[in-house]
peptide-methionine (R)-S-oxide reductase (Rufibacter quisquiliarum), 104 residues
Amino acid sequence: MFENRKIEWERQGRGQGTYHCRRCGEALFSAQQKFDSKTGFPSFWAHLDENVQQQLLTTYGRERIQLLCHRCGLHLGHLFQDERTPSRVRYCINTDAVQCQKEG
């Protein structure tokens, strides 16, 4: 669906900081791994440490990978295959689930 859309990587100076869980404050994603996937959702190609848990979700007659905060279990979004990224996956994140903390 999005395979042919060009990725727009974060502009110079905007790729600084860390995205944290809005509920518990756990560090989840680096702004350096954020990109514009043209989906309308914040998208990342990797997560920090083991702070994002993956769980199989079977709803609406299909299977998906649900992403949860490892510390508090907050639903963050979903994981999709995406050949355009260095990791070949896209972490599609709900805007309300994370907050960005800029570096110094």
User: Anything to note?
Assistant: The longest strand covers residues 52-59. Residues 57 and 63 are 6 Å apart (CA to CA). The chain has one domain: 17-101.
